[in-house]
Amino acid sequence: MLNQLALTYLFAQNSGFQIVPIINQLISGVGIVGILLLTGLGLAITFGVMGIINLAHGEFIMLGAYVTVFMQELFDMDLLLTIPFAFLVTAVIGALIELTIIRRLHGRPLETLLATWGLSIVLRGVIKLLFTAQLKYVQSPSYLSGNLKLLTNEQGLPLISISHYRLFIIGIAIALFLITAYLLYGTSLGRKMRAVTQNRDMAKCLGINTSLVDMGTFAYGCGLAGIAGTVLSSLKSVSPPMGQDYLIDAWMVVVTGGVDKLIGTLAGAVLIGESNAIIAFLLSDPVARVIVLLAVIVIIRYRPEGLFTVQKRG
Amino acid sequence: MTQVLPGVQESAFPRKLALMAGIGFLIFAVFPLLFGEFQISFLGKLFLFGSLAIALDLVWGFTGILSFAQGVFFSLGGYAMGYYLKLNLTAGSSDYGGNLPEFMVSNGLEQLPWFIAPLQYFPIAMVAMVLVPAGFAYLIGWFIFTSRVSGVYITIISLAIASALNTFFVSQQAYTNGTNGLSDIAPLSFFGAKIPPIGLYWMCLVFTTAVLIGAWWLTKSNLGLILRSIKENEARVSFLGYNIASYKIFIWTLSAGIAGIAGGLFVALNQFISPVYMAVPFGTQVVIWVAIGGRGTLIGPLAAALILGQVQNYAEQITQDWQLIIGVLLLIVVLFIPNGLMSLVPKQFGQAKSPSKSNSSHSDAGYLQAQLVDWITPLQKLIKTTLTIVRNNRPRC
Amino acid sequence: MSLLSIQDLQVEFSGFKALKGVNLGIGDRELVTIIGPNGAGKSTLLDAIVGKSPVSKGKITYQERDITNYKPHEIARMGIGRKFQNPNIYNDLTVFENLLLALKGSHGIFAAITSKLTRLKRHKITSVLEQIGLIEYAGTKAASLSHGQKQWVEIGMVLAQDPSVVLLDEPTAGMTPEETHATGEIIQAMSEFHSVVVIEHDMEFVKQIAQRIVVLHQGQNLAEGTVEQVQNHPKVMEVYLGRERIAA
Hints:
The structure holds 3 protein chains of 3 kinds.
Chain A: H1 4-10, H2 19-49, H3 57-75, H4 79-100, H5 109-131, E1 147-152, E2 158-163, H6 164-186, H7 188-198, H8 200-205, H9 210-233, H10 242-257, H11 262-282, H12 285-302
Antiparallel strand pairs in A: 1-2
Helix pairs in contact in A: 2-6, 2-9, 2-10, 2-11, 3-4, 3-5, 3-9, 3-10, 4-9, 6-7, 6-9, 7-9, 10-11, 11-12
Chain B: H1 15-30, H2 37-62, H3 70-92, H4 102-106, H5 122-145, H6 151-171, H7 173-176, E1 189-190, E2 193-194, H8 197-220, H9 222-232, H10 234-238, H11 244-270, H12 280-293, H13 299-318, H14 322-336, H15 365-392
Antiparallel strand pairs in B: 1-2
Helix pairs in contact in B: 2-8, 2-11, 2-12, 2-13, 3-5, 3-11, 5-11, 8-11, 12-13
Chain C: E1 4-13, E2 16-26, E3 31-35, H1 42-49, E4 55-62, E5 65-66, H2 72-78, E6 80-83, H3 95-102, H4 109-114, H5 119-132, H6 147-161, E7 165-169, H7 177-190, E8 195-199, H8 203-209, E9 212-217, E10 220-225, H9 227-231, H10 234-240
Helix pairs in contact in C: 3-6, 5-6
């Protein structure tokens, strides 16, 4: 909260510098950061940890959203309660896909890329067959509606505010981030996951069931995408191509942050989210998108290992 | 007298292949005379898509750079032609007066922007049709190929480029007419005489044939050998004294130039261009033609574009789920027929391959079978395990 | 004056010093063998010469020109050819095509498009094939060759480049004793026309070919001389004692 002095400064009409919209923009940027982190996290597992070029990531988000739609249509379930279902369903589908597709293309990144792209088309098509192309709407729980007012003017109208739902998104994103970080760095399961990706043969020799670990890791990454789908489903409408919007963003976050450490994904999300919000405020939304995309291209060109990683021995 | 080397091909003129190609060309040149205008235009478009696929094949199938941005170069060429035709229509019959296209007027422009104005002259538009996409490709190529960025990242960059340029063209309403693109444009004419559809079709056919022959000649030369080596192991080629970056930039720029001309002809035929052709889905379409037709073969992608285009045309009248079919087809090709459907065609009809006995079983039906068995095994295992678990946990009475 | 001379060469990988100041001079048509325990920096030295690993300090001079940190293709064009430790050839190409790719000549794009397989080129490739004894495999895909034959193809590629300096990284790795011996003969024949640097582990083979031996240890020069001189060198004995029997 801002103190009284700052308030009077803010409302000095002659200051000529409008700080309120900028703060608003920064706060809406925080909302974007939450979304980016949520969508990027699953990819940080499948690409960051496993090195799988997964272009069907957006479709797992879409699948999660459809699980919520399905549960709500059938049982009128609360959105929060559908989260475990979304996680499970997408994780199982992910495991099956790892078993039938990803595993067979091990060590051939371009083929994996192509196959997951084909998969993304197939998933979109199947969902369209099952649920039609019609836009679906998800009810967000009533207790998450409304805004948190950070600053109001004399009439009591909000000047700076953030919706409860955005806060909820950020909360979920950070919670998942911490859980994933604990899983990866704090448990023996995580050590196995990293061991398998760093030296598969050695891990095998040490008695780790590499194919099970592969399947589990991929399933977990897909499950995270599923949760992202549920949480994001009530922001916009749910439709088969919705995952495409998130795919490129998720990739940009992971690539910018670097795949070395999970913290890179958080940093990437903050960097992209906030710079997007600020440029959008100064210029316009599409221009911000173009500039951010070009910036990411430049980052890949000069630091393919990401901004927030240590350079490795050549 | 040089010793005869076993299995080394004397570079002779491929008579059989040339004969077949010639017959094919004649059939495609004469046969459409029986068709209606719509079918002629449609076939012409498919040929242009075919040349687009060949252009991508040069970059991907031969050099190993998978790009989803082929549609970007196609569209840049298309917009160059589109502006030329639009400006020439408006100059003749404008309701708004002046020579401004209606969308510029409605978006508050009072003057033709300096970067669009020159396109009203035919020679400049023709040069721009090639040089804008090729120049843009050169810039991108120079930027990314001189770095240590590896294959997959280049593909991701190509996705970002397609996405960024699409967003940009959509957002610049006043200059590009946004998502609506350029429509209601003048027909292409030659010294004041409108070119009939069959004429445009022949132009497309000749262009595609030229692209096919040119690409065949290029890939049979030493350049083809170097490109294939870059694909297999690019670091090694540089230790033989080749500057890999310049080769990649060359083939990438050439491919973009071909795509640009194809785009220009497409607009003349189609009378319409919009940012849809820049976006990732269209780029994917091109990738799919090459993947299904067969990477590294030239006829394959062309045939795939022609056949899939036709099938799609009919299929879309019956089902709305054409994309699903395409996705399944792509998955099958990647998993089981990595060299594309062309590799299942008996050799003598296919691309003239090196005559040595191919030891890699990559291209025959046996490989396909092995792959299928390989694929089903883990599934069987999974089902068996699940069944065992279920059986063991069955409540006993 | 040496054809290729290396002065106080240092190579560093983010803090780790792989080479800590190596000096080496190679004369025209001289055969130098480099030995040393694992991690001595032998391959890194070759990497630095051909421009694969960036040099942090020191100087590489070739034909009285400073070529330190030039790009790999520039160095290759000047006439330094290299064979890698594992056969690094093109499995998808035939043996003939592998050699054609390596053949000395213009490396420009235009030249590549217009070049024809002239009688001269065929002759040159044929003579390389004869040298490496793979003439009947000319049209065979490299993928189907044995490990030793692949090593020969790569040696052939270096020969086809016709460089002034040939760098061979463990050319006999994975070869049978007969193949190793044949390789030794190829290398000795080679050294009549080229300066040759060989990295080797196999002391039998070193004895077969060696004229002058340079021993590297922990990124530095340890000793230099003939086979006998090196074998009896106290420092060398100390380093090798209990690891590999140099006197085998």
